[in-house]
Amino acid sequence: MNAPLAPLSPVGADLVTPDPGAACEFYAGLLGWTGTPTAAGVTAYRDGVRAADIRRGAGPARWWTVLGAADPAAVGAAAQRAGGRVARDEVRDPLGGGFRVRAGAAAMEPGPGRPCWYEYMTTDAATADRFHADALGLRAAAPPGAPEDSYALLTADGAPVAGRLTVPPPLRDVLPTGWMVYFAVTDPDGVADEARRLGGRVLVPPSEVVTGRVCALADPAGAVFTVVRPASSGG
After folding, report:
1. For residue 136, is it left (φ>0), alpha (ψ between -120 and 50) or beta?
2. Which of 107, 108, 191, 216 is an S-S bond match for 12, by CB 3.0 to 4.6 Å?
């Protein structure tokens, strides 16, 4: 019998893109990053705090949510039993999404221009919730007032560590299935304008949601991410 899986939680984000230098330049203008070259690409910082690892890789460019695990092999085995596929530290789920698992990874400190939240985007909430429970030990719980199956918090030991959003039909051809990284900003509208100026695209214009003001973007290489001004930030 398999031992119960310790719940996982996101600890940061990797960007895999064909040109890390160009990506760092885009995010420097958009989110105020500075970059330090590494053998694999660039480590990005905001205000001296690590914001992301930008790694060189064949397209299409994409953001990866990184989950911290004491035993990545056990996570990989659980993911395979739940219908996923594993290659090195990458796990692909049955719906086409993916994430990375890393041992000993310290959680990135949230703050302006840095990852502050993670959500799984799907059109099949039941399958997504089942996989995350079986493979990651995360349980879906609808917050008070949320329409049935439209949104859930993914909880570890009862505490929310991420979200799961059922993408509405108008956005299903816009937002990809899988994990979305949210970056904290003070002015999503201004960031959207700056993204266009820098060669990116606005996929979902700035709008108010329960958690704050959000805007989904794609960088010039096509990697999709979201910026958010959390509701508690005011403004």
Report:
1. alpha
2. 108
Provide the CATH number for the domain around residue 176. 3.10.180.10
CA dihedral over 100, 104, 105, 109, signed as positive or negative: positive
> Does residue 90 belong to any structural domain of this protein?
yes
Cα–Cα distances in angstroms (integers) from residue 201 to residues 18, 29, 158, 177, in the given order = 18, 14, 37, 18
Helix (H, G, I), strand (E, B) or coil at 47: coil
pLDDT (tens, 9 = 90+) of the chain, 235 residues, equals 354 566 889 999 999 999 999 999 999 999 999 999 998 899 999 999 999 999 999 879 999 999 999 899 999 999 999 999 999 999 999 999 999 999 977 788 889 999 999 999 999 999 999 999 999 999 999 887 766 668 999 999 889 999 999 999 999 999 999 999 999 999 999 999 999 999 999 999 999 987 789 999 999 999 999 999 987 755 4
| Counted domains in the chain | 1
Inside any domain, residue 1: no
The bridge status of strand 98-102 relative to strand 62-68 is: parallel
Long-range contacts of range 80-87, CB-CB < 8 Å, 24 or more positions apart? 81/2, 81/134, 81/135, 82/130, 82/131, 82/134, 82/135, 83/131, 84/131, 84/135
Closest CA to 67 of 150, 156, 130: 156
Q: Which domain holds residue 102?
A: 9-233
Tokens found for residue 21: 């230098």
Q: For the chain, how are helix, strand and coil distributed in percent, rounded to 5?
A: 20, 45, 35
Is the residue at 229 inside a domain?
Answer: yes
Tell me, yes or no, whether 147 lies in a domain.
yes
